[in-house]
Amino acid sequence: MGTISDKLMRIINTKEDIRKALISKGYDVPTSVPFKEYAKMILDLPCKVDSFPDIEGIVARYSASGLTNEQMAANPVWVDKTGNGYDLQLKNFSWKGMSGVGGYVGDFSKWVNNRDTTEIGITKSNSKVIIDVKVSQGSGKNIVFISKSNLGISNNVTIKITSTYPEGVMKFANSASNKYLKLPSNGIITLQDNPEYTSNEMHLHLASADLGQITIEQLPLYPGALVFDGVDDYGVCENFPILTKEKGYTVVALRQWITRGERALGLVSNVKNWLNNGAFLLEYRNIQADHLNKPISFGAIGSEMDLPHILTYQTSKSYNGVSITTGNFEGTDVLHVGKLAPTNVGTCINAAIWELVFLDHDATEEELTKIKDYFVKTYPWLFPDQAWTVVGKTNEDEDRATIANITGNGNDLILSNFGFAEGSGYGLYGENYNGGRWIKSTYRADITWTSYSVNITSVKVASTQLYYQSYPEQPSFTVPSYKIKVYGLKDGQTLSYKQVTSEGQQIYKISEDGIYTLPSFLFKANGDWYGFTLDKIQETCDITIEQIPEYEGYLVTDGVDDIASSNTVVYEADFTFIGEWKFIQKDDTVAGINSSSHLYIQNRYNRGATVMINSTFENKKNITDYMTFKAITSKGKGYDENWNEVDLLYGDGNKGTSGVNIGGQGGTEFCHMIFKNMALYMNKVFTKDECIKAYNYLQTLKSK
Known about the structure:
Layout: H1 4-24, H2 38-43, H3 45-48, E1 58-63, H4 69-74, E2 77-78, E3 88-91, E4 100-101, E5 120-124, E6 128-133, E7 141-145, E8 157-163, E9 170-174, E10 179-183, E11 187-191, E12 202-206, E13 212-218, E14 226-229, E15 234-237, E16 250-259, E17 268-269, E18 280-286, E19 291-297, E20 300-301, E21 311-315, E22 318-319, E23 322-323, E24 335-337, E25 350-359, H5 365-378, E26 386-389, E27 402-403, E28 413-416, E29 425-426, E30 438-440, E31 445-449, E32 453-459, E33 464-469, E34 477-479, E35 482-487, E36 495-501, E37 504-510, E38 514-518, E39 521-523, E40 529-534, E41 543-548, E42 555-558, E43 563-565, E44 569-571, E45 575-583, E46 592-595, E47 599-603, E48 609-613, E49 621-623, E50 631-633, E51 637-639, E52 645-647, E53 656-658, E54 661-662, E55 664-665, E56 669-670, E57 672-682, H6 688-699
Antiparallel strand pairs: 1-25, 2-3, 3-15, 4-14, 5-6, 6-13, 7-12, 8-11, 8-13, 9-10, 9-12, 14-25, 15-24, 16-21, 16-25, 17-18, 17-24, 18-19, 19-20, 22-23, 26-57, 27-28, 28-43, 29-42, 30-33, 31-32, 32-41, 33-40, 34-39, 35-38, 35-41, 36-37, 36-40, 42-57, 43-54, 44-53, 45-50, 45-57, 46-47, 46-54, ...
């Protein structure tokens, strides 16, 4: 039987054998994990098996799937999944926020409990808050104070709320401005960027006297990915095998660049001494040297290349299938992820990386296909067949009438009939300063302008510098209320917003920088004017009046003749639709988001959305009171703006081709709506969880 020491050693060896087996199946299992946790991992194996293809010559592979910030903080090592031992030592990660696993925009650990802990208990981390109401505070009490700079509500964060409370009793409230945002008691909601909800007076407000528990959890922006903060995060392996020109190499990365700086940087690098060695440098960028995206292979800097969407690869002779030159440098024994070289060359990257794969040879097409198929199967939400977003586009862009397809397939949305001002174009602005009746008094001020902003660098006359001049006999109309951001006021300068009539004037004065809501008023017109006056002469200044759009980051259709249309989309029998859009008024039209008989979302019958899935107009239609859906599947599952499930009628799936029309249909039907993004996934019927992942991923993308 052996001694107690022998028995103990057998137990230790068994634990280590099981640990290694779990690692081989895709788990990250530090030695610090208690043995009792192994049982759950084993039970979960059917859905955890790492099915990465068996490819000869895999040097190293790194996957962030299954990692947690808590785990990585304890042991910041990115384990080589091959078992070859080429682990990456991760440096300078905070393991929270946008530096670590997942990517979180808010820091919930800084929420503040404003009640005695015997009454209200609060357990918090960077991404989760658990609130225990132990003693009744009375209905309508503010139970948790939320710091202005740490809520994350102004960063389009998506939260999941689980509680013991009924619907309709919970909200974020701004005591200072009496603004509030309703929250589901159990559900998911994306908190849109809104300055009205960022204040030192923010509270979680509970209109219930009941005892109970509330869990508020951030959903990560990049689930299953390692996020590099662009400041000092990087990884290094100092015993990497030396790759040769004779066999070549392959680097495959499933990644998303979040931002790209102007100084020298690259995704992964084999460089040990800058400009002297290194087998590869993937996606090199250096604006100062006029390099936007260039591959480097054994020291040879390739030509400028387009940046692929989500999956990228490089061999010694090609970058994403395009031939590149192979230089004369030698490979080295280091691997840097997120950093160019051991020395202070360039900057660290701001990117999310799901997986990295390294081969000791130039991969064949068959091998590359196997790797891509694995990624598509494992991370389906990252691979839409069609996808568009308007984030980052403005009414002033030269390419404003084109919304590029994110996938790079060239199937862009083309905008027709948009005015690109006020309620037809990007944002929805109250006024068009570039319109024919708006006067810029250049003899009174040095002024430049766009349709939505003006900048003044000198005030020559203390009189009206920007104003709307009505024409004689022009009928009266209501001037809309809208928000402006004013900055650059100093030395006692005052900005006045005036309406001047024969009966007198109305003045709204602004004396300091900030965000202001200009009042709506009935304007008589008929030769009268309204507009802006700077009340003090200034030889030099830098004053800006910038409109804040009602729907920032959205395309707005006017319901008159605006339409966005794509070329042919090949539909499969099954599909999943993901998007951020909304009807902003109830119309009676067949316009909306339409793709022939595959998917109709029409603003019909003054009821909101009429949804038809794989059907004709007269067959399998749904008339709903919803103004938007985050997701719709071909199997009749819809998800509203709070991710509540809605059962929809649907027809038998059919393959076929169709374009996509947004805001208009047939050249005669139009509707009022806002559109931010959408994606189509063919041959995929996502679960709710996958829909949420796809939606959140779509929100991180910007228009090319």
